[in-house]
Amino acid sequence: MKRNVLIVAGLVASGVVMAETPLEVDSLIHLNSLVVSANKIEVNRNSVPLTISVIGRSQIENSSESALLPVLSEQVPGLFVTEKGITGFGVSTNAAGTINIRGVGSGNKVLVLFDGQPQWAGLFGHALPDTYVASDVEKVEVIRGPGSLLYGSNAMGGVINIITRRHHQQGRRTQARVMYGSYNTQKYMVNNGYNVGNFSSFVSINHDRTDGHRPNSDFQITNGFANLGYRFNDVYQLRGDVSLAKYKFQNPGETFNPIFDNKMDVWRGTSSLALENQYEKMSGAIRLFYNWGNHEINDGYYTGEDPQNYLFRSTDRNLGVLFYESFRLFEGNNFTVGIDYKNWGGHAWNQMNDGSADQEIIDKSVNEVAGYVIMQQDFFNKLGVNAGVRYEHNSSFGGAWVPQAGLTYRPFEGNVWKASLSKGFRSPNIRELYMFKPKNPDLKPENMMNYEISVGQSFLDGRLSAEVTAFYIDGKDMIRTAMIDGNPLNVNTGEFTNKGVEAEVKYQILQNLSFTTNYSFLDQSDPIAGAPKHKFYAGATYLPGRFSFHLAVQSIFDLYTDEACTKQEDYTVLNARAAYHFGKNPDKGLNIFVKGENLTATRYSINDGFPMPKATFMGGIEVIF
């Protein structure tokens, strides 16, 4: 298998692949220079000690993916997302879409944000992978390691900050795409950006559906998104957005234990409103957000069982107010203070099919209030010091302190060294505290300390860059189910240590030819499913005239596919895309494209009992005007 990886990687390095226009080339070279997730204000990536990966708009577009997470699973070292079919992740029993960063993530330990606002289900605490739509994303910043100092609970293993699209140019731009492929998979997308005077808007609609590559694995989803903004003057602007998703799907169960009529009907929504300020020496915002969900689930039945006589129903919410302000007190200094208020929870019940009274399960909410401060100081344009602390008070377990500190050192042009230590924590969710038999209202938060050091170097005026990171994680108080006096009970008992290395190289070989590769190694004292020991990706891009091509390979080794960690999987997949552009303007006109995934028809599973499809193909037409 490893020999095959080297052969395919060689093909990628020398092969025909997709490229950007000259403007996109410049964007690629300077892509990682500015980030907002580290300090909540725009700072140079090389000035903060955290390890941050940035995935830009062109990388997302080149994938032709409608879902965002598969793109991140390839492009970000140390990050892996579980999948089980041609499209769609699902919720509840046998769901995919679990995000692990450095072997931490299962059980809502990686926090997903929309423009800095948390996105997760209020009752069960899990992420919402089917609602993260690629066409609505401007770029993604991934903190590989704890982000709890700024973002609180669930940012224990890392943070994925999805920065939504805005229309920056004056005038209007409309994009529409239609795709069709294997297993009657259909994908439709249309979006429109409009900018006039001080007003800007971006609106999109997506619809995906598939019959699935297995019987009873059909999936369909419709997403709508709108982002509106108005600038009052040079200091203040108001921004608001809303995202809605309606999806239905069926879970066929494991191949060795099929389930019947396990069907889910889900509504999800999120909205936010922010007043932002930008003074000469200070900037910040006050943000209000509200996420909600409505789930109707038929839990299904197995061979020899009777159909269920109820539907599981739940509504959940996750709302809050975030306030922060950053001050530039003197040369090279940034000082940020913030206050967060969050309320999350929901209502769950069994709706009886015979019309009898509903069976109540839970109707509960939890409050969190936090304050934090973070300071960054640069000295002589060489040395940077970053430190901060957060205090979080939770209505179920009380208070928690979260420290973070780090250094950056830039000894010469293009070179940067980083070192940091940071604490991550995760509050127990409603299910663990109050739902079902193992519940325990006395649970404390899970905790971990992350220690890391990295070195990065750029060459050839930034066209070639490389970064290597080593990390060590010490986790404790993990929530596990134990037998106490003959009864199952959730308790804070688990411990783990993870250590590893991550590497990434990007090379703009020519103006129309680029190459990127990443590799991560993970050693776990207490292995979990969905966190491979070895993860390798290589891809490149090339644009000869109006043609564009993309070729990429991903190899995964020592991946546990079952929760008991008794089954392992090794696999390599090869993906390709080719397109042709009609029109003189590269940003307008007609594009036709075809793409193939798993072109070598590798047989593998990421979730045990859910074999991934063999070779799949999609074709599409896109028009931009």
From TrEMBL:
It is found in: Cell outer membrane. It is a multi-pass membrane protein. Keywords: Cell outer membrane, Membrane, Receptor, Signal, TonB box, Transmembrane, Transmembrane beta strand, Transport. Residues 217-599 form the TonB-dependent receptor-like beta-barrel domain. PROSITE patterns: TONB_DEPENDENT_REC_3. It holds the Pfam family Plug. The keyword Membrane applies. SUPFAM superfamilies: Porins. Residues 46-159 form the TonB-dependent receptor plug domain. InterPro entries: Beta-barrel_TonB, Beta-barrel_TonB_sf, Plug_dom, Plug_dom_sf, TonB-dep_rcpt-like. Residues 1-19 form the signal peptide. Belongs to the TonB-dependent receptor family. This is TonB-dependent receptor.
